[in-house]
């Protein structure tokens, strides 16, 4: 008989800066206690960066727009998908030393084992990042 997978954790937050902290807390608190010392900080930082980007670039910054998060374990990783209603595709850039922003995806690129951007079937964009369980346990 096949192993029954865990049900993914799923949240919606308003497109408001206060949601960044709430999302980070929700995601890290949903990790099993045994994994928090290994994944909690990196997963919290990934969540903060991706939710901040979604609010800044993927919404109209009104509380009617929602940011969706899904967290699930699979294939030796914990996967985080952050989705927004926007149609733009985030692009990894290398800002110069004087730039005041533009480093969020660099951080994601360095923290995550792998990550990608996908258009959603109906409306919006998802950024999906995976953290390896093997490297962190």
TrEMBL record:
It comes from the Bacteria. SUPFAM superfamilies: ATPase domain of HSP90 chaperone/DNA topoisomerase II/histidine kinase. Keywords: ATP-binding, Kinase, Nucleotide-binding, Serine/threonine-protein kinase, Transferase. Residues 13-127 form the Histidine kinase/HSP90-like ATPase domain. InterPro entries: Anti-sigma-factor_SerPK (IPR050267), HATPase_C_sf (IPR036890), HATPase_dom (IPR003594). It comes from Streptomyces edwardsiae. This is ATP-binding protein. GO terms for molecular function: ATP binding.
